[in-house]
Amino acid sequence: MADTMSTEEQAQLLKDAIATINSETQLMKRCLETRGKLMDALKHASNFLMELRTSQLTPKQYYELYIMVFDSLNLLAGYLRDTHPHHHLADLYELVQYAGNIVPRLYLMITVGTVYMTTEDAPVQEILKDMIEMCRGVQYPIRGLFLRYYLQQRTKNLLPESQESVQFVIQNFIEMNKLWVRLQHQGPSKDRAKRTKEREELRILVGSNLVRLSQLDNDKDYYKTQILPIVLEQIIQCKDVLAQEYLLDVVIQVFPDEYHLYTLDEYLNCIKDLNPNVSLRKVLITLVNRLTDFAKREEINDLSISDGTEQHEKFKLDFNLFDKFWFYINELDKSRELSIEEIGSLLESVSRLTLAYYPSCYDNIDQLFKFATDKIKDVDPSSTVEIEQDFEQLLLTPVKLYPKLLDVLKLSNFINLLNSQTLKTQKSVSLEILNKLLLQGIKIKTVDDVTGIFKLLRVIITSVDKEQDANGEESLDYINEQEKLAKLVHLVWNKDTNVHANLLTSVKGVLSEGNIRHTYPSLFFNTLRLARRNKNGDLTNSLFKFISRIINDLYRVGLSDLSFKFYLSSAVIADQIQAEEFAYEFFAQCFTIYEESISDSRSQYQAIVSISGSLQQCRNFSRDNYDTLITKTALHSSKLLKKPDQCRAVYLASHLWWGVEIPALGEEEGVTEFYRDGKRVLECLQRSLRVADMCMDSGVSIELFVEILNRCLYYFIHGNESISIKYINGLIELIQTNIDTLSQENSVNENPKKHFERTLEYITSQKDIDDRFQLITW
Amino acid sequence: MSYFFKSPLDLEIRFEGEDSRQQFEVKSAQGKKDKYPLYEDGESVVGEVTVRVKDGKRVEHTGIKAQLFGSIEISNGQRDDFLCLSHDLAPPAELDHSETYKFNFKDVEKRYESYKGKNLNVSYYVKIVIFRKSADITKIKKFWVNIYSNPTDLKKSIKLDIGIENCLHIEFEYSKSTYSLKDVIVGRIYFLLTRLKIKHMEISLITRETVGVQPNQLSDSSTIRYEIMDGSPVKGETIPIRMFLGGYELTPTTKTNLFSVKNYISLVIIDEDGRRYFKQSEIVLFRTKS
């Protein structure tokens, strides 16, 4: 036995055998070249064939010998073919059978027999039958396999197109498989693994028969009745896992897909009789995948729509493919208790199949999902990584393959199955859905879609950032996910504003469960957009109330700055659509937040500036309301902590009493009536001037003076008569005096000085255009 | 033959139509191939002998006789002429020139085949004797005899069912028990149970010659081995047997009161430890013409 020898001994043995084959081949050649020495040539052939009687080599080494012998016998066969009819091949066929040892005898017999077959009027079928029958004499697995492989190779191109030929190949296949399986059970059991490996190396010898079979001309019906049943029978009978997995795989690979479709029952029936250790992944999923690819190749669009268009003429199935698989999955489950791993991968592939053949038949997929949900109930889905992955793939199949992603919502069991998965799986599936929605920019237009989709995304919505650090900084991944959700909110849209509003209400309901800091802002803007688009008064009310609630929620979670800005934006919009009450209320809210929550002096200044800016744009307030608001603004301005801030805020607030045109609204100076009160403007400016003067740092004072001068010039140009030449001249003088004083101390700051000089230059230049400027002197 | 004196006469025996007659090849002990003219039972043995006188000498004789012998020689020296025919060719005379005489043994009954075995030879020859007052002059010439038969009652096939308890159980079958020498043995072996680790299986064709009777019996056998299976089959396997006989030099089954040649076919199974298991069955071989 091979396992009693060391590798070195085997190598030496192989070397010797090769040497013998080489020298005997040379001798044979010489005899063939000499007339009348055929018998001696055969003797030499028989000598090198003796090397194939060894049991000491590994399959690989034996294969090496086989290849050499094959080449040598090819020489012999070539000679016999050329010299026919000098040697009567029928006699020769008998003659070589005197060889005392069976292995050389059969190799010679096949060599002569196959040459004999090529001659005219040769009894081909008898020869084939005889050769294959005599091959039974070699029962030693490796030698038998190679001998029968030789028979197969030799007869390869000689088989007539007939059913006998098919049966010949099948018979050879059966015998080879038996030998191959038997190899497993030879020798001591400790070498089992090694033998399995050896068998792996030899499997192609067995498989080659099936390949050969597929090359013979068989029609579908013959395949169904005479080939496949026998092949499957053998595969089942051998009970060997390796053989069953490999051979079924070969069957699937070598025969055309049309045949598989035609013989699906036979094939699927066989699956349940296999050794329970056979991996379904290998024997069933391969088939499913092949059929799926076939549908793609053949461009089968949708068999569930039977409208008789031309693609159905090209391809017809007289049964429902999915139903068939479904039936057998159930059968299989009954007969061998499918493991959850098997179910996962099986359902995944079948789902792709049904998507290929019946894309619009949602029930199919749903059925699979229900099955999966029922099955996974009993097990822990996180028990192995593979199960997790399989089910994730299963869930992702419709997500990836549905042309319209929202069709996923038609699968009522999708969500059940999703919820039965581990958080990790749920999350990755949800994220995939989310990404796809964003990528395709699919608009979410109905309440059902909203509830459906957000249900699928629930795990993301409610997820908590586990990696949040001690300072409350959120991890990048988490922010990314939340950001995507926020983006998704923008996809909620309906042409009908009422419906749109309903959608938003649903979204808010769903999002309220999660981290609203990230998601509400986009909900806010979506609502704001709708508010602007909306023309319906009733809706306006509810929308603004809705907005108010959103901001309120945000404010409550501590986002005061943001809430402030949102109120401001809402106020502007409310003003624009002439919802004065709301506008007023929103401004009021702004002030409330300002008072309650904005404590940082810098932010306060910014807030006041923002309010001023916003109020400046408002057009639809009643005079009283507007007065209240702007006075409040000016008041807050003057109460700022830092003097420069106070000063600037106040002079900015002065603009609130001096409306100017917004060209976008079609306003025009001189035509439109603006809210203007020159005196109040002056008062503001004076107040800011006082504040500026109070600054300790003279440099800052001068800068502020210059800025106020600029404001004065602005009003002067815009015709505010309260700002007189005298006032301006006085201001200029004041600045100059201050600069002079400082220059004497040699501590004047260059920047305010330059600003002042540029302002003066401007005045000079304006003198040419506007006569009024002539009076400004210094 | 070496004679003390050089023979004054040359004798040459020739069978009629010798050149065209079928020859029978026999391997001699030295490995050379001897050829003999072939006769069958009941056939006349006809020929002529030419007597040449050397150098114009005159040779006196007391008569010339032709004899035909069939004899069995056994290695222990025993010899039995089972056939002895003779007739005169010439009366006493003096030969001074070459002369040719015809001999004719009509329809000679030949009971046995010519045979060359280990301990036994069966041979036929024609002997010409020239009787003289001094030493007689003799010359012999061998010929070969084949006995053809064509048994009509070919016995039925051999079927056997054998086994070793809990170890091996096989059925085997040979299509016939009687074969002509150019026949082919066809059969099959069916394995009902095999727990043996079989290395290979072969058929042995055994030819056994037996001479004499106990206790002085001499016997010897020769065997042809033919491998019919390599490796160990599983239960249910059927192994075919086919062995062409024509290429071997076999002897037809013969039985006389002096000796016998019997043929056996033996199925031998050799296991991986080198143990041999066999079952032997007698078969009858016969020779057919053509």
UniProtKB/TrEMBL annotation, chain A:
InterPro entries: Vps35 (IPR005378), Vps35_C (IPR042491). It comes from the Eukaryota. It comes from Cyberlindnera jadinii (strain ATCC 18201 / CBS 1600 / BCRC 20928 / JCM 3617 / NBRC 0987 / NRRL Y-1542) (Torula yeast). PANTHER family: VACUOLAR PROTEIN SORTING-ASSOCIATED PROTEIN 35, VACUOLAR SORTING PROTEIN 35. One of its GO terms (cellular component) is retromer, cargo-selective complex. This is Vacuolar protein sorting-associated protein 35. The keyword Isomerase does not apply. Coiled coil: none annotated. It is a peripheral membrane protein.
UniProtKB/TrEMBL annotation, chain B:
Signal peptide: none annotated. GO terms for cellular component: cytosol; retromer complex. Keywords: Protein transport, Transport. InterPro entries: Arrestin-like_C (IPR014752), Vps26-related (IPR028934). GO terms for biological process: intracellular protein transport; retrograde transport, endosome to Golgi. Belongs to the VPS26 family. This is Vacuolar protein sorting-associated protein 26.
